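User: Fold both of these, please.

Assistant: Here is the first one.
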Amino acid sequence: MKIQAKQPEKSTSNLKCKPKGKSGKLGIKSVKYEILFWLLPAVLAAMIVLSFMGYYTSKRIIQNSINHEMELSLSTAVEKIEKSLSKNRMVAEALAQAVQANANVMAADNYRKLMPPLLSSNPETFGGGVWFEPYSYDPQQQYFSPYCMLENGKMTYFDDYSLGEGVYYTDMEWYTNVKDTTQSTVWSAPYYDEYAKISMVTASSPFYDASGKFIGVATTDIDLTELQKIIVSLQVNEGDKAFLLDPSGTYIADNDSAKLLKANITQESNTALAELGETILVQKQGTGSFE
């Protein structure tokens, strides 16, 4: 048997299979690069924006927390100070009422018995006195000014409080500021007392004779050292600083004791602090900053 082998017929088709070449790979890569070129900056920008948002949100939360703690701390300090002032004021008023009711019958020795226990009734009262108008206590005696103050933890009585040669209590602010007042008590500005050798503030309560004529003043004093301790101890965070000013801007309490009753915040060499001080004196409450 004869077997005939036949060559397959040539395909008339002109189709060719083009193998994958380098140009295809480059095309895919270029698309990837193009996507990264546009996507990466967008992702980075979004991350930066989110970082800033997170930073400022955290900063605001922390600042609000600090402000809240500061307000609580400040409220506590103010409450302590007001309570101390109120107690001192009540002692001054009680002393004035006792003198007014018995001015015509009380001898000098009676003041020695009355004043120490009354002034000692408030542990925060440093001292106090009774100050008669000239010749009002005795027509033969120009001045009568019994006074008590703490010495070694005990209220010590003095027959006559001396302000020094040629200086009279009738010229002192804590005396003159109540001569024409309708208030039961008036507070003095903080001052340094040369006799007691301390910085103090005084509550003055006027007293009158039976006809309503002004005949003198009863006073009680607070040693500012205790108030200064309350203020200086205010510290919510490391590096915090608190100070207390009088209405004119003079320092009453500050970490720098050299400033007390001498320096004024509006005259600080740091102009940013001086400007803040002026704002503080104008506004009753608020927030501010300085560098």
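And the second sequence with its predicted structure:
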Amino acid sequence: MPRAGQVKPVDDERLTDRIAVGVLTSMFPPALVDEVLEATGRVEKRHRLLPARVVVYFTLAMCLWADEGYEEVARLLVGGLGKMARWRGSWRVPTTGALTQARARLGSGVLKALFERVASPTSTPGAAGSWWRGLRLVAIDGTVFDVPDTASNQVRFGRPASGRGDGLGAFPQAQVVALAECGTHAVIGAQIGACTIGEATLARGLFTLLGEGMLLLADRGFGGYDLWQGAAATGAQLCWRTKANAVLPVTQALPDGSYLSFLRPPRGNPGGPTAVRVLEYTLSHPSRGADEAPVRLLTTLLDPRQAPATELAALYAQRWEQESAFDELKTHQRGAGRVLRSKSPEMVIQEIYAHLLVYYAIRVLINRGAEPIDLDPDRVSFIRSLRVVRRQVTDQAAFSP
């Protein structure tokens, strides 16, 4: 009989059954991970030192500790679990080679499917910083990740032009176009492709996530009749910046200084003109030259009484919240200037989805703490939250996931 306070060993329980990612396990519980593994056909037919669920948690953990080697990440992931009780058999820290092979067996589909299962808007209606006149604020934008300079990565992702204009960049780059909730910075959708593919091309894959009750903000890189029509067809409202030289004839001047116009389809497109409202304004800032063109916004919100021009102009600045999200993910979570670990395209995609999952989970935790006290999540430090999450992984001790 075990002494009082002693954990009774379970015959069929292994140390790996207890491995989790600390507080992040509430977002990725073992039952959900197992369900995704089953759906993607990655359930193992025999017991391994690294079961598939453990490999999922390891892949997430390596994004929490991007500076550490594989074996050290595995040690941090296990933390104090070995001191919990007597276990059937022993679990040794796998070698870097074994961990690499385990990631390859897992593939990228599991992490992609897990992200698509959990990533969704997190703010409740009316939450601070996330809503405007009953519409949820979301933004779409792109960023790139440097990936290891291997032949397969170069073929799959391509290289950008050198900033000096004298050749190609030092590393291949994977491009990510993401849809984010402005107020919480939560990334709720992502498309991954080569850096040679236009952001607008990848953006189309995110339109299925849009719908009524959303207001989508985007910069001038996402302009164009076809893309506008595709986004507007989802029922979401749009407020996008457009190029200063876009031809937008005035069809009706409006009292707030905006005007109605239309977008024409490109030649050969069977569609007809679509009505838009145009806002033009300038920003007063020492960095702006006197001859700079005004900012021009297009919106589907045609009634100035429901969407005053001054409010929309101020609202467009919320698009930069997604830039802040990318900075948090790439500078603080991944590490400034750091090249991803993965040497093959499949593993690059897996690693990017793992980073997105970890970032999403941290942002959900921040929002859960901020909303009950009506605090804008922007006021909560991402860096401190990241440190708390890292500590929780190593402090999981005797608590079951």
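The mean pLDDT is 88.
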